[in-house]
Each structure stands twice: as structure tokens, then as C-alpha cells.
Design goal:
17 helices, about 40% helix, seven-stranded mixed β-sheet, alpha/beta, about 475 residues
């Protein structure tokens, strides 16, 4: 098995030129080669001899395999052509790549915190100052909303808040990075009338392919209809395809397809009807959307000039394959921004299937990361599969030493309602594995930011706490009484 893994890595590695990221490439390829083998019996043998499980060594695959085989008195010959990181190497590489892309965390935490800014915050200096003081390391601007003027006001608002805080003795030796998401080819609900359009299970709903039409509620003669943007996204829709609206709050099955509309039978919600809201997104996980809709839209390309001038990090929405990053690289070559960080957002089924190739292409950027955009991703892969997919993405990114941003739904109830749910507290505890955690906008964003910072600080304290202190904490809380 060991020699087979080495041979596969050597055969494939030259296909991917990643100057300066050879460690990343070779270890990722070794991890992917290892996963092709059934190592269950091998793992049991290791456990019987008190050796660590190889599946937990994805950050230094060949090094760990060589050491394990050495303990088992199996002679191996490692080729000098391969770059083989040690555990110490792997920690250093990930730390450096994370800090170069995302900066250093508040209070020297391992994880950074990203906060989505709202256009309404542009003139709210006190709020921006509070966000900075409470731990916002990266300010996110979603280019699907507002315009260049509002974006510039938000960026200037962050810089002015930093200046004033430093002038009053705060916020020294820190700078908030600016992250800007390209809008991407998001399909959305178009213009709706003043009267509510509501649906529930069993209803029919027409998606009007002319985005200039006005939506209408159901009548005696026809079901309700809502216009949709990006008509070409529906060119491959077929009978029985699934369609989701508003992050899956409404789901339906395609029953009829015409040149004017797509008619779906609503599958959820059950019971109480749900109001369709203007501007909400649609997902078409079965309809081969990537064949007709590239990740970079004309709007995105036009926005690159502004983003290249003002942003530290660029987020690429709805990535499907490495081709999307190649197109971005070609567009960015028009601007002198070699240090601009690039983040590929994983939010489609195609992106999950092509993740390794997306990463290998992304390593050609000087600074590169992955965002797990769990809102659209959950709809695309199914909520029942989200946890598994999230784990897979984290493992593959760890093997490639690529920083990960965990986004969507983190402390969402606390951010919007002011009270955290038990499940989201568990979620944020697990989210610490990511290099950056994103909070979305909401009325109680300061409360959520404060809570997230406390969780991260407690995690750091636990990591540094001595065994004696841990025993004291156990006694204090009576865990074993």
C-alpha cells in the first residue's frame, strides 16, 4: 500500500504546477491516494500495537506511514523527489498560510472572526467601533447587495473607526481585513406585489421566466406565480427536478416546463403556509446549472476593479470547478494585485465533487482559502448530508494546508433573536476547527460576537491549561462526583 501511494503521488504531482506550495500539493495527493485503500484491518493492527490511527494523520501522511512502518520493522524507501512534511512542518505551514490570508486573531487566538456588514452600518461609527473592539478581525461586504458607493462608505467607516480607536489608546497593532464576496450567478425571486403570496404543501407555484413580470397570488384560474432572475439557469430543468426557495424553507418538484414558466408542486412547508419573499434565492441541485451559468458574471467582472483596489480578500461565489478559478485568474491579471487573497466558496454539489482539483488550482494564488458556505450547500447536498460533507471539506483542506472559513448559521438565533439555542452553541464549539468563523448580520450581532469570542478564548485557555489546573476545574464543577 505504501509504495502504491508513493507511485500515485509521483505520477500525478507533475500535472499540477504549484510553485511555492509543493508541501501542500504532495501531502494532499498522498491523503487522496491513501483514501482509495481499505485500511480498516491496518487500523486495527495499529491499535493492537498501541500505535496512532493513520486516518488522523492527514496533515503528514507519508511521514506518519513511514514512521509506523519503521516501528513495525518494515523497510521503506522514500523518493527524494517528494516533499514530505513532518508534523512540525505541517503546523507551521498552516499557521503561516492562515495568517497571510486571514490575519492574526484577536487576543492572539488561533481562529479569526469575520462579520458581515450591512449597508445601514455605513454611517454607524459607534457600532463599527464596537465590532472592532469585541473581536471582528475581518469585515465582510456582500457584493450582491448595495453598490460601489455604499461599499466605499463601509470600508472608510472601518478605517475611520480604527483611526479613532487608536487615537484614544485602543486597537493598537491590529488592522481589520476587508473581505468582499462576488455576487455570482445567484438565482433570486423577482418583483412581487404588495399583497402576500403564500404557499404550503400540495400547492402549485409557477416560476415566471420573464424577470420583468410582476408576481401574483393564486386565483381561480391559475396558481400563484413569481418571477425569477437569470432565466438561462433554468434551461436544463426537467420534470421531477427539485427546486428550493429561501434556503430550503420552500421546496418543490417540477411538474410542468414551458417556455414561459416552470411549474412546481410544493412539497414543504407542511401545515402553516409560508410567505414568498422578494429577493430570496433559489437552488436547482438537479438541473446542471453550471452548464449554462458561469461562476463569474458580467457584474462580477465589472466589480473586480473596485475590489482589487479596496479589498484584502476576494470571495468567489458558486464555484463549480477549477475552470472558474482559471477564469478569475485571467481577469485579475488585468490588475496588479498579486497579494490579493482568494477564497473559493463551496456551496454547490459540483464544488464538493471537484474540491481537490479546485484546491490544487487555487494553490497557484499566493494566498488562497476555502469557505464552507453552509446555507446553499445544505440545500444542494441535503441537510442530512451536511455534517458529513463539512467534515470531508475540513479534512481535505487540512491535508492541503488550506485555511477554511466556516460560514452561515453560526450563532444565527443569537444574532437575530438575542438568545442562543443549545444546538448552535454545540455547533460553534465544533466550528473552532476552522481557521475563521463568520457571523452574519443581525440585530444582536454584538451579543453574538461577544459570545463567539468567549468560546474561542475559553478554547485557547483550555489548550494552554496544565493538567493540575484541569483537575481543579473538574473538582470545581463536580464532573466526577
Amino acid at each position: 500500500m505504501f509504495q502504491e501511494i508513493i507511485q500515485e503521488v509521483e505520477q500525478v504531482r507533475e500535472t499540477f504546477s504549484v510553485t511555492g506550495a509543493e508541501y501542500n500539493r504532495d501531502n494532499l495527493l498522498a491523503y487522496l491516494a491513501l483514501r482509495k485503500h481499505n485500511i480498516s484491518d491496518f487500523q486495527l493492527s495499529l491499535a493492537e500495537q498501541g500505535l496512532a490511527a493513520i486516518e488522523k494523520s492527514f496533515c503528514h501522511v507519508l511521514y506518519s506511514l513511514e514512521k509506523i512502518l519503521s516501528h513495525l520493522h518494515v523497510e521503506v524507501n522514500l523518493p527524494t523527489t517528494l516533499v514530505i512534511p513532518t508534523p512540525s512542518d505541517s503546523r507551521g505551514i498552516m499557521k503561516n498560510r492562515s495568517e497571510e490570508l486571514l490575519g492574526k486573531g484577536n487576543n492572539h487566538l488561533d481562529s479569526t472572526i469575520m462579520v458581515t456588514l450591512d449597508g445601514k452600518m455605513a454611517n454607524n461609527q459607534p457600532l463599527i467601533s464596537e465590532l472592532l473592539l469585541k473581536g471582528m478581525d475581518i469585515a465582510r461586504i456582500n457584493c450582491a447587495h448595495d453598490d460601489h458607493e455604499v461599499w466605499k462608505q463601509l470600508i472608510e467607516g472601518v478605517r475611520m473607526a480604527e483611526y479613532r480607536l487608536r487615537d484614544t489608546g485602543y486597537y493598537h497593532d491590529r488592522t481589520c481585513k476587508i473581505y468582499m464576496d462576488l455576487a455570482g450567478p445567484k438565482v433570486r425571486i423577482g418583483k412581487l406585489p404588495l399583497e402576500d403570496i403564500v404557499v404550503k404543501k400540495g400547492d402549485s407555484l409557477r416560476l415566471l421566466l420573464d424577470s420583468n413580470k410582476l408576481g401574483h397570488p393564486a386565483s381561480a384560474d391559475a396558481p400563484a406565480g413569481v418571477p425569477v432572475t437569470l432565466e438561462k439557469a433554468f434551461r436544463n430543468v426537467r420534470i421531477h427536478d427539485r427546486i428550493f426557495i429561501d434556503d430550503g424553507k420552500i421546496s418543490g418538484i417540477v411538474r410542468h416546463v414551458t417556455k414561459e414558466h416552470i411549474e412546481i408542486e410544493v412539497q414543504s412547508p407542511e401545515g402553516k403556509a409560508y410567505r414568498i419573499k422578494e429577493g430570496k434565492g433559489l437552488n436547482l441541485p438537479d438541473s446542471l446549472l453550471s452548464l449554462n451559468v458561469p461562476a463569474l458574471t458580467e457584474k462580477d467582472i465589472n466589480d473586480l476593479a473596485f475590489i482589487s483596489k479596496y479589498a484584502d480578500i476576494l470571495g468567489v461565489s458558486f464555484v463549480h470547478s477549477p475552470l472558474d478559478l482559471k477564469k478569475l485568474r485571467a481577469e485579475l491579471s488585468k490588475y496588479e494585485v498579486p497579494h490579493l487573497g482568494v477564497v473559493a466558496k463551496i456551496e454547490t454539489k459540483d464544488a464538493v465533487h471537484h474540491l481537490a482539483r479546485i484546491i490544487l488550482d487555487g494553490l497557484q494564488f499566493e494566498r488562497f482559502g476555502i469557505m464552507i458556505a453552509r446555507g446553499d450547500l445544505a440545500v444542494e447536498v441535503g441537510p442530512e448530508n451536511l455534517s458529513f460533507v463539512q467534515e470531508e471539506v475540513l479534512a481535505i483542506c487540512s491535508a492541503a494546508y488550506v485555511p477554511v472559513i466556516l460560514a452561515t448559521g453560526v450563532l444565527e438565533r443569537l444574532t437575530k433573536k438575542g438568545i442562543p439555542s443549545r444546538s448552535e452553541m454545540t455547533d460553534v464549539f465544533l466550528a473552532r476547527r476552522a481557521n475563521c468563523i463568520m457571523l452574519n448580520k443581525g440585530t444582536y450581532i454584538l451579543n453574538a460576537l461577544d459570545m463567539l469570542t468567549k468560546v474561542l478564548i475559553s478554547d485557547e485557555a483550555e489548550r494552554l491549561t496544565s493538567n493540575e489546573s484541569k483537575r481543579n476545574l473538574t473538582d470545581q464543577y463536580g464532573v466526577l462526583r
